[in-house]
Amino acid sequence: MKEFVVIGLGNFGATVAKQLYQLGCNITAIDVNKARVQDLQEHTHQAIIADATDRKFLENLEVKNFDCFVVSTGEDSHASILISLYLKELGAKKIVVKANSTDHVKILLKVGATEALIPEEEMALKLAHSLAFPNVLDFLPLSEEYSIAELVPPPKFAGKSLIDLELRSKHHIEVIAIRDVLTRKLQFIPSAGYQIKDSDILVVLGKDEDIEGIRG
Amino acid sequence: MKEFVVIGLGNFGATVAKQLYQLGCNITAIDVNKARVQDLQEHTHQAIIADATDRKFLENLEVKNFDCFVVSTGEDSHASILISLYLKELGAKKIVVKANSTDHVKILLKVGATEALIPEEEMALKLAHSLAFPNVLDFLPLSEEYSIAELVPPPKFAGKSLIDLELRSKHHIEVIAIRDVLTRKLQFIPSAGYQIKDSDILVVLGKDEDIEGIRG
Ligand SMILES: Nc1ncnc2c1ncn2[C@@H]1O[C@H](COP(=O)(O)OP(=O)(O)OP(=O)(O)O)[C@@H](O)[C@H]1O
Ligand SMILES: Nc1ncnc2c1ncn2[C@@H]1O[C@H](COP(=O)(O)OP(=O)(O)OP(=O)(O)O)[C@@H](O)[C@H]1O
């Protein structure tokens, strides 16, 4: 059972708190504004009216017991910086903060925030990527090193079967689906004997450099 | 070569325009504010100073030629509503609008916007999901029917190799990675001879019902 604290119940903070609660997590919601705390009462386990820049208040929270703190205290950058500093000193495991600018991000990371994000910029980047690569599979990082990508098969692959090409053992990539270039439909988990047509698009999983190695 | 128009060059619009340009797309940036248009000149193919609620101006754009319009004209909801209405009438293929509230979203969709998003709320929902399900792989739908999911292997799998279990041919699922339950590290693209330990977590790709069939 995951335990979270959300400090600052503006649009962003309130949405995070309500969604986490709906997903079955244990939520403590904190704000200095009474009305906002009351609005959250139906959607959280604990809703507390408090000034989170009050270090004594934070000490009483038993900060180490929570999986993550989400801080979104609005346009006053100083409040979120102070809260992050204190939470880090008190041993918070993870601190995610909504930031107002790239300088604010730098300061937050320096005082101990685990992650600092500017929602509008993050969303703008995601939108740009999904517009430039409308095949979500074309841009899907799975981890630091591995991604899923769509490729046009190199000419030497045409007519060969997946098993002939030894993609897994030799190239260390896995073909998880074939996209028919005409119908755009995906056929997942092709059989080992599947023969590649030059009109196919391969949907592969692999390390970024191994994928580039095939593309070339 | 994808062609986009971005109307409204505040933080959101400017970020979308610059990112799309960096990703190799053809960008036309429009704003009524001269300084903002000038700031974008290095980052777009065309940067135009204009009031996009002027229907005559939009008619001269040859709206049908573009893949998508991104509209983010700020707190004045009326401008984006009017622009969406006109773009739809002029035959725009796709119109994505940054909205200010859920009512604004409803109105935009009614007048013809393809998509209307409130970046802060979208980001809040994504953050909540990634906090509640920190294994992104645990929550990754790839298409209508297929997903990637993490599973504890059923007891009868322990000690067997992937190829013995005929997961691909018999169960129609692919094990794309093994997660070590102690270190939490992922080993992608396990070999066919890999023997499953009962302390492994299998990261599989398959149809939702085939995955459930294994879980059971
Ligand atoms: N020191 C503090 N302790 C607790 N709550 C605080 C503190 N400072 C600010 N807050 C609360 O944080 C919330 C910030 O929400 P606000 O709407 O101002 O901005 P935001 O988070 O940038 O935007 P959004 O509404 O989009 O989330 C307010 O409800 C405010 O009362
Ligand atoms: N009718 C219009 N035609 C062209 N540009 C417009 C029109 N109305 C507003 N704009 C521009 O849209 C931009 C909106 O940016 P603004 O910073 O106000 O808000 P926003 O998009 O909500 O926020 P953000 O800065 O986070 O993107 C401004 O640069 C403004 O000049």
Counted beta strands of chain A: 11
From the alpha carbons, calculate the radius of gyration of chain A and give it in angstroms.
Answer: 24 Å
Order of helices and strands of chain A: EHEHEHEHEHEHEEHEEEH
Which stretches of chain A are low in confidence, meaning pLDDT under 50 for 5 or more residues running? none
Indicate the structural class of chain A: alpha/beta
Please work out how many helical segments of chain A DSSP would assign: 8
The averaged pLDDT of chain A comes out at: 89
Distance between the termini of chain A: 47 Å
Main β-sheet of chain A, in a few words? Answer: 6 strands, parallel
- The CATH superfamily of the largest domain in chain A bears the name NAD(P)-binding Rossmann-like Domain
Overall 3D form of chain A: elongated
Multimeric organization: homodimer
Question: What structural keywords apply?
Answer:
homodimer; 216 residues; Rossmann fold; Alpha-Beta Plaits; 2 domains; five-stranded antiparallel β-sheet; 8 helices; 25% strand; binds adenosine-5'-triphosphate
